[in-house]
Amino acid sequence: MKYLYSMYTWIIGGFFFLIIMLFSIILLSFIPSKKFIAIFRFLLRTLFALLGVRVKREFAEQIDFSKRCIYMPNHVSIIDAPLCAAYMPEFITALEAAEHFEWPIYGKLTKLYGNIPIDRKSVQNSIKSVHTAKNTIKNSNSIVVFPEGSRTEDGSIGRFKKLPFQLAKDSEVAIIPVGMSGVYCFNKKHSFLFKPTKIKLKFGKIIPVEKVTSLSHDELMQVVHHEIEKLVEYN
Question: Can you give the pTM of this predicted structure?
Answer without folding.
Answer: 0.94
